[in-house]
Every structure is written in C-alpha cells, then in structure tokens.
Amino acid sequence: MKKVFFALIFAFAVFDLFSQEIEDSVSAAEESADTNNASEEIADDDLLDLFDSAEDTDAVITDSKNSGEVTINAGGFSIPLTFSGYLESSVGAGDIWEDGKHKPSGYFTFLNYLYLNARPDKTLSIHGSLRTVLPSGSTTSNSSTDSILSVYELYFTYLLFDSVFITAGKKATSWGYVRLIGTSDDDSSSEDTASGSAYKYGGISTNIISDSRNGTSGLIRIPFWTGTISAIALYNESYGAASNMSAGKMSFALSVEQTFFKTSLNLFARKYPSLDKNDVELSESAKIRPVAGAEIKRTIFDADVYAQSIAQLYDRKTLVDERSVKGLGSIVNTVGLYKWWNKHDPNFGFNVEYQDVYFPITETHSRCMAYDVGLAHLGKKKNIKLGASGYHSFTKKNGYVKPGIIFSGLIPHATWENGVRVDYGESDSFVSPKITFGSYIKITLNY
Q1: Which of 307, 379, 292, 293 is nearest to 337 (CA)?
Q2: Range 218-228 average pLDDT
Q3: Cβ neighbours, 10 Å, residue 239
C-alpha cells in the first residue's frame, strides 16, 4: 500500500511539472483533436449488446464502404475525395409497467452519418462526418448540445517521419481498457460532494478524456521503446471564443503506454483549466482537480484481464507534505474480464467488471458491477443472437438486467430485435420493479 501511495504522489508531482511547462510554452492559437483508439459513435440504447467490437473505444466502430470517390486537381496535386455513410433507423413499439400501471408507446429513431475523407498522400489526410439524428438526443453522446443536424467530427491527421502521428480538430478520443463501467450514463450522476470534488463517475471515471469531442483538441503520439507516448491538449468552446484562447483555459493530458512480456501497462494523467472565459483564476469550488492513474491488461488463455486505478488530487499539501491519502479526493479502482469464443458455432462471450470508488476524506466506498453475456450464430440459418446485460450498485442497492433476442435475415438490411429491461431495488427515480419491453425492426446500411 505504501508503494502505491508514493507512486501516486510521484505521478501528481511529475504531472504538475509537465503541465506547468506546457502552460508556459503553448501558443494561444493552438487548435486540437484525436485518434488514440477513437471511433465513430453510433451506439444507441439497444436492449442487447453482443460484443460487436472488442476494441477499447468509446463507441461502436462502423466500417463504411467507399461508395463514392471524386478526384480534385488543384495546385498540381490530385486529391481523391471519398464519400461514404452509415444509416440506421428503427421503428417499433414498447410498454412500461410501473407501480401497477402500463404505458404503451411507439418507437422511432433515425441516425445517419455522412463521411468525407481526403488523402492526397500517406502523410496528410482530412476527415469529416455529418450526423443527422432523430429524435434529438436519442443516441449516446459525449455532448448534450448536439443538434438534430451537426458536424460530428472534422479533423486532420499528419504522419511525420513515418512514425510520429499528429491530429487536430474536432475528434472523439478514448484512452483506457475498461469497456462497461463509465462508458455509459449508468453512474454519471454520482460525485464526491463531501469533498467538493467535481469529478463525476460517468465516462470520465474510466476514460479521462471522454469529453474530447465537446470542443477541439490536438494530439501527438510518438513511438517510444515498446509502446507510445501520447500528449493531448483540449479546448472547450464554453471557455470563450477561439480567438481568445490561452493555455490557462485549456486542459492537458499525457499517456505513456508500454508492453512488457505480452502485458500492456499504461500510465496517464490530466490537468484541467485554471482560468475561466474571462481569464480570471477559477475559484477552488469551481476547479476540477488533476487526475492520474495506471492500468494493466494481459491476455490469459485468450481472455482479456485488465485493471485500472485513477485518483483525483484534492489537496497537494496534505498528499505530499503530510503523506496522507486524505490528500486525494477519490480513488477509482476497476477490474474486468472479457472472453469471446468464436471458433465454433454457436459463438459465446461474456464481459464482467467490478468497480470500487473510495473517498478518503469521508472514508466511504461506492461499489458497483456491470456485465454482458451473449450467444450468436444460433438456429438453422445461424441468424439468431441471445444476450443479456446488466448493472448493479451495491451501494445504492439497485440496478437493472436486460435480456434480449435478435433475428436477422428475415427481410433485407434489417433485424428484428426484442428485449426486456427490469429495473429493481431502492430508487427515487422509479418504483421497483419497473419493467420495460420493446420490439422493433432496425434497418442498417453501409453505403
């Protein structure tokens, strides 16, 4: 325990020096963006998730077909422009049973991404995506300000010396091995109010740059030893116009990921803005304090085993001078296990995670777990999927379970999806048990 404690002190001390150097040298006109394990965010609140992707990303990846290509000749260069897209639309019906009453309703969603990619050569590329979503807010999003029609991402990538990767613009970035807890809104409302910490335990509890798409960012990733060093600067439009940018209004994060004996180790930290949009020093109650953490992942018998620990600084003097763990506002520990068998039919897989959040100041804990389990390639036509996902809070004594079944191939480009969600336990937001049933046809198309 002492080794871990001193490691945290060292991490915060080093990161404080790192962020101070950046604030002294960053240009006020610097823009931003990402791509460390990033993806197009198209996940909705499906009743079933059957491990469509095993990547460590903040959303589901969609592979689009290159269906349209136009070549533009300008300034002696021939630049190919590639257009592609993804469409997803669902229509169905549902019913909510709560407190002895039924609430039947219809269901309709429409989601479309139009992608634009320009790559004059292997060094430079430009990427953009336009998103249309109905009803507004029907998809999982890092931003609550997205409109029905919006520019979802717009950024460039640059490869320097065939090894150094640079990207800047509006882009979603994801760091972290955790797949379930903190990647949805299940626990996003809880925070350490006792210590005055604004560190919430939603996406940011396991991905310290989960808010990257909310503004602009600039990322550089450099190969080093057996892995990479990544540094990112983020600027949120809420801190004022881009013409009035300064380092004090920006957030900086650093990640060092290395592989030793088939084991991945990642150390990371983030410092948040110190100034408000008027260049005034933020008050202690308004500041978001720095975070630092480490995670490890290894494949054992074809199963991913991973663990992550993130701590947020509360008082530097208490942590460093007094060497007390009460200098930390919170310590978030998450462990997980993921396994997918796909060599024989039917395919089977599961993912389970457990999280313990410790608040040293109040000496209290918040504990929860999340899980996914699924079967695929069932039936004579191998067109049936069965699965269930769930979340349980040991602290709040509540949670939910979502079993479901999917039929594909019944009609072209569509699946028939059916599921039930049962919310249980003590809650101020619903009467337990609350049972939600849904059945809908989902049409998807990569074009």
Answers
A1: 307
A2: 96
A3: 21
pLDDT tens, 385-403? 999 999 999 988 999 999 9
- Phi and psi at residue 179, in whole multiples of 5°? -105, -35
- Whether 55 and 37 have beta carbons less than 8 Å apart is answered as yes
User: Can you list the pairs that 432-438 forms with residues at least 24 positions away whose Cβ atoms lie under 8 Å?
Assistant: 432/398, 434/96, 434/97, 434/98, 435/96, 435/97, 435/98, 436/94, 436/95, 436/96, 436/97, 437/94, 437/95, 437/96, 437/97, 438/47, 438/92, 438/93, 438/94, 438/107
Return the residue matching tokens 């640059």. Answer: 158
Partners of 419 in the β-ladder: 404, 438
Environment class of 378 (CB within 10 Å of its CB; exposed 0-12, middle 13-18, buried 19+)? middle
CB–CB of 378/389 below 8 Å? no
Cα 46 to chain center, whole Å? 17
Instruction: Indicate the SS3 state at residue 357.
Output: strand
43 - beta bridge partners?
none
Q: What is the pLDDT of residues 11-51, one digit of tens each?
A: 444 334 333 333 333 332 222 223 333 222 222 333 333 22
Phi, psi of 194 (to 5 degrees): -65, -35
With tokens 């937001």, the residue in question is 429
Q: Residue 99: what pLDDT? A: 93
**Residue 138 to residues 92, 97, 145, 175, 334, Cα–Cα distance (Å):** 15, 21, 12, 25, 28
Length of the chain counted residue by residue: 447
Q: Give me the residues paired with residue 312 across strands.
A: 291, 330
Where residue 62 falls among pLDDT bands split at 50, 70, 90?
A: very low
Please state, in angstroms and rounded to a whole number, the distance separating the CA atoms of residues 110 and 96.
22
Answer for the pair 27, 116: CB distance below 8 angstroms, yes or no.
no
- 72 confidence band (pLDDT: 50, 70, 90): low
What's the pLDDT tens digit per position in 292-309?
999 999 999 999 999 999
3-state class (DSSP) for residue 384: strand
- Tokens 């600084």 identify what position? 313
Going by C-alpha positions, the residue among 28, 172, 71 that lies closest to residue 113 is 172
Residues ≥6 apart with Cβ < 8 Å to 12: 269, 290, 292, 313, 316, 319, 320
Q: Which strand (E) or helix (H) includes residue 310? A: strand 303-313
Going through 394-433 in order, the beta strands assigned E by DSSP cover 398-408, 414-425
